[in-house]
Design a protein that fits this description.
Helix content is 39%, strand content 21%. By secondary structure, it is an alpha/beta fold. The chain folds into two domains: 109 residues, Glutaredoxin, CATH 3.40.30; 94 residues, Glutaredoxin, CATH 3.40.30.
Length: 223
């Protein structure tokens, strides 16, 4: 049974078919969660099928192909990486990007396909102060209408800076991880395990919070 409805496929054909660059989805499955792994794989395949050839896909097993998982820094699955054929931007999603989170997946595909995250010049200038890696975790739930904007911004930052990796994380698929980070409300954003904040903030405030977390880790060059 198809996951996407016909009207959704038609919309995707219109939106993805005009992308100037090819996007690659790298799907990681796990023997520990076969049903959700299969769902993620099917969802990715349906997106590929509706993309008019603009999106391609490869699939790997977390257990059978540990070297590939290590290359992408994937420790939990099911997971999906959105990248171009030439570059891994550090865009990740752990779990199934379903419900409101489907917006996060398609938005990331469009940004990568255009080769531009669409951040403001001010945000790009602020990110230029980073000097060491930053890991952004955005905890979400499928029914949260505010979560996609936080995931989208985190992914945009990852695309804009080679030092940033950003993960959208389904709290429902990974409850132990959510408990580990004390997730009581979503979206909850955690920066390098040192700083966290909640809520879907506008871009300037979101970037400032990320830089505050990076500063707490000693990752910013002070002018």
């Amino acid at each position: 049974m198809a996951i996407l409805q016909e009207k959704d496929r038609q919309t995707l054909q219109q939106r993805l078919g005009v992308l100037p660059n090819t996007v690659k989805l790298v799907v990681f499955t796990t023997e520990q969660a076969p049903e959700t792994s299969e769902l993620l794989s099917q969802l990715a395949q349906e997106v590929v099928g509706a993309s008019s050839g603009k999106v391609v896909m490869e699939q790997h097993s977390l257990e059978a192909e540990p070297s590939v998982a290590q290359e992408y820094g994937i420790q939990l699955a099911p997971a999906i990486v959105v990248r171009s054929e030439e570059k891994d931007y550090g865009i990740r999603y752990l779990g199934i990007p379903a419900g409101f989170e489907f917006v996060s997946l398609i938005g990331a595909i469009e940004d990568v396909g255009k080769g531009d995250p669409g951040l403001s010049p001010d945000s790009r200038l602020m990110l230029a102060n980073l000097n060491r890696p930053v890991h952004i975790r955005v905890f979400v739930t499928y029914g949260c209408p505010y979560c996609p904007s936080a995931v989208r911004l985190a992914h945009k930052l990852a695309m804009a800076s080679d030092l940033i990796t950003a993960e959208g994380i389904s709290s429902e698929e990974f409850p132990e991880l959510a408990n580990q980070y004390g997730v009581m409300a979503v979206p909850k954003i955690v920066i390098n395990d040192k700083h966290s904040f909640e809520g879907a903030l506008p871009e300037p405030q979101f970037v400032q919070q990320v830089l505050r977390g990076a500063s707490a880790s000693g990752l910013i060059i002070v002018p």
